[in-house]
Records
---
Amino acid sequence: MFSLETLVILVCVCIAYFAYRSSFQLRNPLPPGPKGLPLVGSALDVPEKFSWLKFREWSHQYGSFYSLNLFGKTMIIISSPKILSEFTEKRHLNYSERPKLPMAVDLVGYDETTVFMPTNLMWKEHRRNYSKLFGTRAAMEKFFEMEVLGARRMMRAILNDPTGLAGSIRHWTTSLSLKITYGYETKPGNDDLISLADTVLRQFTHTQKPGAFMVDLVPSLKYLPAWFPGSGFKRTAELYRNDFHEMMDVPFNMVQEQLKKGVAKQSFTTDLLSAEDYSADKSYALKTSAVTIYGAAADTTAGQYHGLLVLMMLYPEVRKKAQQELDRVVGPDRLPDYSDRDRLPYLEACISEAMRLHVVTPLGGMRAAAKDDIYDGFFIPKGTLIQPNIWQMAHDPEVYEDPMEYIPERWLVQNPPLHPHDGICFGSGRRICPGIVLAESTVFIGAAMFLSLFDIYAVEGSPKFFDQSENGILDGETICHPKPFKSGIKPRSAKAEALIKSIDHEL
Ligand code: HEM
């Protein structure tokens, strides 16, 4: 038992600690922000979709750095690239971790992927894998030349069924990631691996929806046994975990088998498995970095590309200018390829502007503070969620004149504004997206081919402008896609149609 004296000392130490902490917090309060309700804070005011618009609205009152209370958890919203880089670059040691979401991370185990992994040795190995194999344009183009056939297949699919545009785009980007990662050749139409990959991605997206699982709000629920009434989320987690592991193992084992038989096609996985410095202890890092590519690449790139085509429909004079450039550089007798890229500055500007106007990941990548910190006199407790509002940055009227308009010409002046791939749309700091080159190359080849071969134009019932409000043209999800929309799509000429159909001889 404690003596009375020890007890008195302990109580005094506790009082002194809490007094110090309160006076510290008085001197260094949390960043300003809406008060919210008791217990829930502002959680009920954050909409499930288009939350970036609500965050922007609050920023008009509280500035480009403010805080929210979400069920007792502090979230800081940042809508200035300068402040964001202070966190993600200058203070990267404290702000490179991802939040530990109980459902996604503790129960399903998505922290086996790069996106949710803590910044440990495994994560470094992942990042090395990516930069070795597609960190540069030259390295990437080696992979990509293999996949020109995939882009041509998409053109054929669009010609067959222009109304199925969204599906053709998804099929293309998914096939592309599976081909680049595993050398896997998907079947046109239904393909087992695409279906599995789609299921896993849908499940993953479900776990990212704020409030979808009670356990994310009350983390201690994760300790409930699976049979306990109300713990159905545990069975869901098990199902998601099994599918995720299947997605990780099936293609990886397939490549290993093919390598043994000497029939494997070149891919991210074969290159790393056959690298000189490969050893069996790297196998797990390789497998988990490979499975991440599908999850991180296919849906984002599809959303970006689809958005570009919507804009080409809404801005016919821009489309015609891009097509005139393609006609000059490529001509009608062949399909564009990577060697044309440097000679297509207007098309490149169209892609940059589409990336700025249609931000596919409007909230970027969330981070969590590893320990307590002070910024500009404000207290940032350990575990605080750091949420960039990328959408707002890319639509800042101080930086981009007429920010809601599609103006590719803004990128063709001597001193263009901050490019969306510089610290905005692909994140920044240690956890910056490693797929920038791959994403931009994919969108480039898809755009060059489509615009060489097809016209896309408004018809009755088509949207009239790029309305980004809740009732507009986008779905408002974390990875934001255009909603299905009506358009006319037809080959630009008989020659273009023949070029598209020429693929039939190669299948
Ligand atoms: C238009 C397409 C894409 C967009 C808009 C996009 C955007 C992003 C963003 C905003 C982040 C979070 C960065 C941060 O926290 O600062 C991220 C992370 C990531 N992206 Fe992408 N991405 C795209 C395509 C790709 C592709 C093609 C790959 C293929 C490798 C990829 C792989 C990843 C990975 C692995 C991470 C996690 C990095 C980490 O946490 O260390 N992404 N991406």
Note: The chain has a mean pLDDT of 92.
---
Amino acid sequence: MPDKVKFTDEQLEQVISNYYAQANSQCPNCNARLNIVCGEARQLPKWFSIDCPRCKSGGQIADKKYLNNRQWTVEEEKAIEDAYWENKSALCPIDNSVLVIQERSFAESAKGYLSAACSRCGNALDTKKERLP
Ligand SMILES: [Zn+2]
Ligand SMILES: [Zn+2]
């Protein structure tokens, strides 16, 4: 088995991206599945502690996606909405994270609405809100 190593920032970034995309991450050193712990959620940027239970490699990283996030554009929000209704899932156009989406309906309306949020970059949308043209 390989000796314990410290993961590079690039390796740690990839692990976090997989985490938000709900994909598995394997240890770059020995291919074992990794333990990923997200630090205090209210603290920004979020901190992640990542370690391999097998070879004991690992590292810690702040998620920099929080520091330079931008707002979703109107076109991106429209694409998220379409993707959800067509496939029941959607990805964040900025960081490819799986979005948390809730379908909502209101008695006074014949239409269904969505609320969608990215837990990584913090963008959110609510299609019930009137959008400016
Ligand atoms: Zn390992
Ligand atoms: Zn995002």
Note: Helices lie at 9-20, 74-87.
---
Amino acid sequence: MSKTASPILTASLPRNSASDASKPVTNTFFAQTALDESGDKGEFKRVDASWRNWVKKEPDAQFPAEKDRYHLFVAYACPWAHRTLMTRAVKGLDDTIAATVVHPIWQKTKPDQDEHSGWVFGNAEGEMLTNTEGNGGPFPSIFPHNEPEPFFGSQSIRELYEKAGDTDGKYSVPILWDKKRNTIVSNESSEIIRMLNSEFNDFAKNPDLDLYPIEMHVAIDKVNSWVYPTINNGVYRCGFAKSQEAYDTAITELTESFDRIADILQKQRFIAGNKFSEADIRLFVTLVRFDEVYTVYFKTNTRSVAHTPSILNYCREIYQMPGVKDTVNMEQIKAHYYCSHPILNHFSIVPRGPDFVDLLEQPHNRNNSLN
Ligand SMILES: N[C@@H](CCC(=O)N[C@@H](CS)C(=O)NCC(=O)O)C(=O)O
């Protein structure tokens, strides 16, 4: 695939057909990292994920569900990757799909060749690191739970994409990797969590937990349709805005949605109804980063989870569900955001923060149950 250097991506991308599933969908424009993804009014425009194949439970599927065939590449820092780690945890799929956690702080991926910065793997023998402009830190070359890339010894996520024939980027996590075909199945978290929910139930410890039950499709889709643009992507639209106008639009929408969530959670246990669902996972991963990162770094300081009891207790309940807290790594979340975009935080100073995790450890005011 050839690389087209333009920061603006407006075209919606076709999904791979089954026949060409080994090839990525080609992005019309190349965006090196999320910071390059903006429109002509300075608004943040997220580039669509390019690998959109599906694991299916049918044995004759192109990517059939099998134990120990697929592997997740994730960053603890990344909310999109966090969706997949949380889904894997609550479904009880840790033994079926292994995961490798990358180093939280973006580095130059090919310093001798170009300026691209992105995810690299932890290196136990590496030297201390700085941010990509030589400031900050010094940071360790490996954080707790970071591991080397297990199959080819790649140094970066970019190298893994290249192994799959994708030299266009963007080189994002999460990746669902197929060890048998040595390729990427999907790099779209919203679709990976659907696969983990429904296609691996023969191996899951909690096959009966349905995060997208048929009777809730309409409600879940409806919640996702406003939570994604105004909250999940909304925080990025605030933080990566390149004009006051773009920021003002994003923060207004985010603030309205935050209040809508607070209101819903006063009347209803979970965001799409009284049952825990994928919509809660998608919301939680943004809320858990909100006070420590987004209010400061992305200027979403009109609201705070800690000061909104209905949302705080909702977060506590989810955080305290079996397996979930192990997926929340605030040290790596903060290290990533504050240190990976020197254009936003030149010296990579990490604010001390309010210790939001300690708040999550406190008892919530709801009854205990996943259902
Ligand atoms: N649509 C993707 C978005 C994933 C994404 O943007 N991940 C970010 C990390 S939070 C990333 O890897 N960015 C790499 C870059 O911007 O170069 C999904 O939901 O899976």
Note: The CA atoms of residues 42 and 244 lie 8 Å apart.
---
Amino acid sequence: MPPPFERHVFVCTNRRPDGHPKGCCATKGGEEVRAAFKEELDKRGLKRSMRANAAGCVDTCSFGVSVVVYPEGTWYGGVKVEDVPTIVEEHLVQGRPVERLLMPFNKKAER
Ligand code: FES
């Protein structure tokens, strides 16, 4: 399926210099999380309808690794490689956001 994709995942892979006060998602595993999304989508035969892209800083650094899923505009924080299969299965495939990984402001916005 050509764009627009059914779901589009943006994973922050921003890297800041060591010691930067804001930190960055790259040192928390952003690049590995993005690779895991790509691999999981490929493994499930979804890569033509859903896409995972690297993103720069999305300004939620303290919650990193930051992941945003569109078209819903769902924001996940503290995402680890081991969370990726759950997000793909529960959210991307079944359409149910993974509550335990939602960023705090996202939870408030939905209630
Ligand atoms: S560095 Fe990832 S959200 Fe800012």
Note: The longest strand covers residues 7-12.
